[in-house]
Amino acid sequence: MAKLENPYSSLPAHSFWRSAVAEVGVYGLADLWRSRWQLPSDARFATFGSCFAQHISRALIGRNMGWVDAEPAPRRTPPEVAKAYNYSVFSARTGNIYTATQFLWQARMAAGRCDMAALEIWENGQGRFFDSVRPAIEPGGFASRDEVLLSRLSMVRAFQRSIREADVFIFTLGLTEGWENAKTGQPYPMCPGTAAGRFDATLHLFRNYGFAEVRAALDEAFALMREIHPGLRLLLTVSPVPLTATATGQHVLVATTYSKSVLRAVAGEIATADQTIDYFPSYEIITGAPTRSAFFEPNLRSVVQPGVDLVMKHFFAGLDMSGAAAHAAATPGAISADLDAQMAAEDLVCEEMTLDAYNAR
Fold first, then answer.
1. What is the DSSP string of 312-360?
2. What are phi and psi of 55, to 5 degrees?
3. Beta pairing, strands 129-131 & 121-123
4. Could you tell me which of 304, 286, 47 has the C-alpha nearest to residue 166?
5. Confidence at residue 220, expressed as pLDDT on a 0 to 100 scale
6. Is the dihedral of CA 256, 107, 168, 65 positive or negative?
7. Are the C-beta atoms of residues 161 and 229 closer than 8 Å to each other?
8. Closest CA to 95 of 32, 142, 62, 139
9. What confidence tens digit (pLDDT) does each residue in 285-329 have?
10. Which of 111, 155, 159, 113 is nearest to 132 (CA)?
11. What's the rounded Cα separation, in Å, for the pair 145 and 131?
């Protein structure tokens, strides 16, 4: 009996679970992503977001590609000191940007739509000051409020340069849970009283942002960024790293699933609606059924290096950089074995992990 003709009759093999996933296994996956843009051969990339975003920046650096470092450490700074002070972790010294709302306020500062001097500065009672926008950026804090403001200004200018100089701006979405100032609406990367500051139950408001809120924050942020760089391309990813802790009252597994589901759905909808925005499936590669959680450390949270390597393999395989050179950038090359080993041994800068210190068990 002949098969009936229908829309599924002519679909490629990667459209079917059996042939695309079940039969090939995790290392046989193909065609997971193809960049929708033809980029210049010397394209420049800016990277920001949650902890997992650092893997992308390291991979770009390791391949001698055009990673934008708009706020490098002072000359002759030893690498271990530079990392401790959060230089060259992201394209500017922003620290981790976990939520879409936090990202929006960063874009507002860069576009001049937010009085950054009015944002909170925390004092620890011992003469040290902390930037509420980036509470873990300076080990031990700053010596004065003026130092906080100067450092914040440098960061905002660097973030603006990252937008202006990048061909592709990569942002890794991390969480839907966050904390805000109940009066001003200022979002915090960490709950006050954890990394720095003091918690005030009357002032500090917990938020678990829903789909509409995340979508609205990203839409506004991207519009502001295009005022700075109208031709900017945006590439969204979702971090596969689970929540360290949840303040929802739910089991952390349930809270993590909600958070990642919302972020993935928003990223997909935005990318579908706008051809200047793309989505790369790092989340699916690490957490999808074929991996059987094999790409997580025993803590079931940190991603092991083979998983990172597989994500980067799909990223560079799908990246189209066949366009004519547009910048005076270095020629991309293969990642060195020494640097690969170094990246595998390095811990990511991940402020959220400090929450586990408050686990009483």
1. HHHHHHH----BPP-S-PPPP-PPPHHHHHHHHHSPP--GGGGGGGG--
2. -65, -35
3. antiparallel
4. 47
5. 98
6. negative
7. no
8. 139
9. 999 999 999 999 999 999 999 999 999 999 999 999 999 998 864
10. 155
11. 9
Structure tokens at 161: 């340069």
pLDDT 10s digits, 1-59: 567 889 999 999 999 999 999 999 999 999 999 999 999 999 999 999 998 889 999 99
The span from the CA of 69 to the CA of 66, in Å, is 9
The share of the chain scoring above pLDDT 70, in percent, equals 90
3-state secondary structure at position 139: coil
Given a cut of 80, whether residue 146 has pLDDT beyond it is yes
Residue type, 2: A
Amino acid code (one letter) for 246: T
Q: What are phi and psi of 232, to 5 degrees?
A: -65, 135
Please, which pLDDT band fits residue 341 given cuts at 50, 70 and 90? Answer: very low
pTM exceeding 0.85: yes
State the Cα–Cα distance between residues 289 and 26, nearest whole angstrom: 9
Q: Which two tokens stand for residue 326?
A: 């547009």
DSSP-assigned beta bridge partners for residue 236: 171, 279
Q: Where are the beta strands (DSSP E) in the chain?
A: 44-49, 66-67, 121-123, 129-131, 168-173, 177-181, 187-188, 204-208, 233-238, 277-279
Task: Please count the CA atoms within 13 angstroms of the CA of 78 that sit on its side-chain side.
Answer: 3
Interacting residues of 243 by C-beta distance below 8 A, sequence separation 6+: 175, 177, 252, 255, 256, 259, 352
- Checking if the pLDDT of 361 tops 80, the result is no
* Token duo for residue 65: 């590609």
Instruction: Give me the helices (H) in 10-77, please.
Output: 17, 53-62
